[in-house]
Design brief:
Layout (H helix, E strand, L loop, with lengths): L1 H18 L8 E10 L2 E11 L6 E12 L4 E14 L5 E10 L9 E8 L4 E8 L2 E8 L5 E10 L4 H5 L5 E16 L2 E16 L5 E15 L5 E10 L2 E4 L2 E4 L5 E10 L2 E11 L3 E9 L5 E13 L1 H13 L5 E14 L2 E16 L4 E13 L7 E5 L1 E4 L2 E3 L2 E8 L2 E4 L3 E5 L2 E10 L7 E13 H7 L8 E12 L2 E12 L2 E11 L7 E12 H8 L7 E12 L2 E11 L3 E4 H11 L1 E3 L5 H4 L4 E14 L2 E6 L2 E2 L2 E7 L6 E4 L3 E3 H12 L8
Antiparallel strand pairs: 1-2, 2-3, 3-4, 4-5, 5-6, 6-7, 7-8, 8-9, 9-10, 10-11, 11-12, 12-13, 12-14, 13-16, 14-15, 16-17, 17-18, 18-19, 19-20, 20-21, 21-22, 22-23, 22-24, 23-26, 24-25, 26-27, 27-29, 28-29, 29-30, 30-31, 31-32, 32-33, 33-34, 34-35, 35-36, 36-39, 37-39, 38-43, 39-40, 39-42, ...
Helix pairs in contact: 6-8
Length: about 675
């Protein structure tokens, strides 16, 4: 708009110059195939003059095409109708209506215009009025490339063409006021002044730079006359939303200071200086750059101070969400720095005197975090200390600990073994080496030893029934390779008088929205009496062996596995357990034993129990001890009365099977009639 005003002033100056030859004559028609002015090109121009010079001369001006390249406006239609007269102070005055067809945002599509030329004051004044928007400009006649311009209520959309000459963004709404100086140069413009925003919005095709309903004001300086466009901005913003790459802000109602030096060229946009000061939430100094498609090329935060929870509520939600942390509660303060380049992460550091963080779903929580980390992709840095009062990972509560770290040659390493209390036991972390800059391949390696973890507390943390026993194991090597964790060795739980061994563990995207866990589980000599008492399934005595191989859980829900359960040494089973086992297997009692007879006995002897399930997606393929045309045997009785449970459903819907299991262990299993 600023550039447009100056170009139109030049046009009006040319027109008035042609007419400044008293006495003016009526019924004059002027035509030109092309009129070329600095920065403005008119084609197929007609100017018609009519009426009496004593009462004013009627003026009609038409241009089939008007081009203003510096404004980003091309192939506009131009129409001007008005009256030209000279007042008693010998000023030439033009009052009329101006219409530009095709200008972005409907700029000057139906505007009132008044042009005043004063030779004595060496000034040309132009006033535009369209709806709530007004533009007032003044320029010296002996220097028509310089203008002083006042904008009031200007629709932000009118600036679309101008913005399009330096970057890919576009205004989406709002208005602005401004007082500015404008100078036209051979290769661009120079302008500076102050401005006020009223619910202004903008966005970019990539969506990485955007704003919405922004209020505020400040000062600016822009120069596109010598190479890439340079912009300096010192503003005070309040309310609305702002997105700068990974930095998303929901601005408060009080003022937030924003300082920017930016360059733009061929769609490439760089904030070489970025300063934010929100008194009770965030202060930062840094820089960032975007390529022509709007993708982030680099981000540097030289100084960051965040006060929580305000910093998280206003600025941190999008950033932490990218790291897989959503709906987080944070208290405390944090100082830090970050250097992220197109090639990857180059350095980061943070310190805190006390920080509490908790994710709503319980995956991660820490209280009393203190100290910090300092890492660089090159060179060596002094050691740092990081400690906490408690640390929760996937609902598993860990006690207080303190760790020492050092950055060496791009690797952040634990300087001495770390002992962490966990559920009445202990986790010992041996060597730990982390390469934060690694985009692929091995990123982290460590070794773990777990001893004496209370299985009842562990079960409670995961929302399971209270299993008795202890959990322990050694992981000689845990590696983070590409996007997943791999464990050598395994974990062993001493539960129900036997052992549960977990091997071949792998966890993909542990902090992502849908983590994937895979592994194998072996069951050895578990006491069925203890298991069935915990799950309220009905009593079964004997020992259970089995396996759950090729287990795969997505977001902690099973999608594939091959499970085999076998109680092969015999024992006793209660009537209720028979009912529940029959229900889960989708079977029935073998012919020859009536329900009425079954009810006469409280327990039965059995020689074997076997049940297999192979899950693929939502369907479980069922089998048992043996198969026949009538189904498969789940329970093989012994003694009298002789009992046999036959399964008839070989294909069972997994949600249905889960529902049956839940009903069985809740005491809501069906009765046999």
């Amino acid at each position: 708009m600023r550039s447009t005003s100056s170009h139109l002033l030049l046009c009006f100056g040319l027109l008035l110059g042609m007419l400044w030859m008293p006495p003016a004559r009526a019924d004059v028609l002027l035509t030109a195939k092309s009129i070329q002015l600095p920065g403005l090109h008119l084609q197929k121009v007609t100017i018609r003059l009519g009426g009496d010079s004593a009462t004013g001369i009627q003026l009609q001006m038409r241009a089939a095409q008007a081009d203003l390249p510096s404004m980003g406006w091309h192939r506009l239609g131009l129409s001007l109708d008005g009256k030209l007269l000279r007042d008693d102070r010998l000023h030439w005055i033009l009052d009329g209506k101006l219409s530009l067809a095709g200008a972005p945002g409907g700029a000057l599509s139906n505007a009132l215009v008044k042009v005043t030329l004063s030779e004595a004051a060496n000034t040309l004044l132009v006033d535009f009025l369209q709806g709530k928007a007004s533009v007032n400009a003044a320029l010296p006649l002996d220097q028509p490339t310089h203008a002083q311009i006042h904008l009031d209520g200007l629709p932000a959309g009118w600036l679309q063409g101008l913005l399009g000459t330096v970057w890919s963004g576009r205004p989406t709404g709002g208005r602005l006021d401004a007082e500015l100086a404008l100078d036209l140069r051979d290769a661009g413009v120079q302008s500076s002044g102050k401005f006020t925003l009223h619910r202004v919005g903008f966005d970019t095709p990539s969506g990485t730079l955007a704003g919405q309903t922004l209020d505020g004001g400040g000062r600016f300086n822009v120069d596109s006359s010598n190479g890439p466009t340079q912009l300096d901005l010192d503003a005070s913003l309040r309310g609305g939303e702002l997105l700068l790459g990974p930095l998303y802000a929901r601005l408060p109602e009080h003022s937030v200071q924003l300082g920017v030096h930016a360059t733009a060229h061929n769609g490439v946009f760089a904030l070489t200086r970025l300063r934010v000061n929100d008194a009770d939430a965030l202060q930062l100094d840094g820089a960032m750059a975007f390529d022509a498609s709007g993708a982030l090329k680099s981000l540097r935060l030289d100084r960051l101070h965040a006060s929580f929870p305000a910093a998280y509520d206003r600025y941190g939600k999008a950033w932490l969400s990218m790291l897989g942390l959503r709906d987080v509660k944070i208290e405390g303060q944090l100082n830090g720095s970050l250097d992220l380049r197109e090639q990857g992460l180059r350095s980061f550091a943070f310190t805190t005197e006390g920080l509490d963080l908790a994710e709503a779903d319980g995956r991660l929580a820490v209280s009393g975090l203190r100290g910090g980390l300092d890492w660089s992709a090159q060179g060596d840095l002094p050691a740092t200390t990081l400690g906490w009062n408690s640390l929760q990972f996937y609902r598993i509560q860990n006690g207080a600990a303190q760790s020492q770290w050092q950055s060496h040659g791009g690797m952040l390493s634990l300087q001495q073994p770390l002992q962490v209390p966990v559920l009445n036991g202990q986790l010992r972390i041996g060597q730990l080496d982390w390469r934060p800059a690694a985009a692929k391949g091995q990123r982290l390696s460590t070794s773990l030893v777990l001893t004496g973890v209370d299985m009842a507390a562990f079960s409670k943390a995961l929302g399971w029934p209270a299993f008795p026993g202890t959990l322990g194991g050694a992981v000689p090597s845990l590696r983070w390779v590409d996007d997943h964790l791999e464990l050598d060795g395994g974990l062993s739980a001493n539960v129900f008088g036997g052992f549960v061994d977990i091997t071949r563990l792998s966890l993909q995207q542990p902090f992502g929205p849908s983590p994937v866990l895979s592994g194998d589980i072996a069951l050895k000599q578990l006491d069925l009496a203890a298991i069935t008492s915990v799950f309220d399934f009905g009593s079964i005595s004997g020992r259970l062996d089995g396996s759950i191989n090729d287990l795969r859980l997505v977001n902690w829900d099973p999608v594939t596995f091959k499970a085999t359960l076998l109680a092969g040494s015999g024992g006793r089973i209660s009537q209720r357990a028979v009912n529940n086992l029959t229900s889960v297997g989708g079977g029935g009692i073998a012919a020859g034993l009536q329900g009425a007879v079954l009810k006469l006995f409280k327990t039965f002897g059995y020689s074997r129990i076997g049940l297999n399930c192979s899950l693929q997606g939502t369907v479980c393929k069922m089998s048992g001890l043996d198969t026949s045309d009538g189904g498969y045997t789940i329970l093989e009785g012994s003694g009298l009365p002789r009992l046999q449970v036959i399964g008839h459903q070989t294909q069972v819907d997994w949600p249905t099977l889960v529902q049956r299991l839940r009903a069985a262990i809740s005491g809501a299993g069906p009765e046999i009639h």
